[in-house]
From TrEMBL:
It comes from the Bacteria. SUPFAM superfamilies: Glyoxalase/Bleomycin resistance protein/Dihydroxybiphenyl dioxygenase (SSF54593). InterPro entries: Glyas_Bleomycin-R_OHBP_Dase (IPR029068). This is VOC family protein.
Amino acid sequence: MSNEVTIPLLPCPSIDDIVAFYGVLGFRTTYQQRKPYPCVGLEREDLNLQFFEIAGFDPEQSYGSCLVITPDIAELHRAFAAGMRAAYGKVLVSGIPRMTRPRVRKNADGLGGFSVIDPGGNWIRVFQKPATVPAPAPPPAGRLAKVLASAVVLADSKGDVAQAVRILDSALTRPQAGDDPVTHVEVLVYRAELAMALGDRETATRMLASAGHVTLNAGETERAAPAFEIAADLAAALR
């Protein structure tokens, strides 16, 4: 047999909250019922998700997760971010729900990915579809790049934000000659993003200020532009 379709069925405390949130991301409701149990089906182009409601369910304790493979993670992230800005005035980067940024994952052969953590605490993990079978990604070069790559795996893949914070803070308190200033900016901005995820606005503000004071030449400023774009979104969320 071929052409089978698999659709994940994920838990949540309220299908109404799920419908509202995914509507912001451009999904439409394809099916909904209240009896014999509340559940809902959602669709955005070829992306299909279904959810069932559990009274008293705690999103913080959810292990719900699924993978989404797409040929263009940047396009999908931009669409989700635009929907969030239109609905909430900002990209959600803290609490539940929230969305992480597209980043290379060393535990996924170097493919880029980002995650949406929805109102049910489910991690919708979006990965870049490789054009061919990917060769193993080369290890990141430089001390800070290695630390950043490990932190991304811990926080964005495993969901262990606290451990990612610990290794970033350890690296930031031990600056070394030869550290790439652009990577330094990226580490500071990512540390600010994780602080936001933990509700630590003071640390987020301090990290963004530090990122703005890293000395960069013209070429380095250009390379750091994506990190400063993220910093601008985080600063907006802090206001």
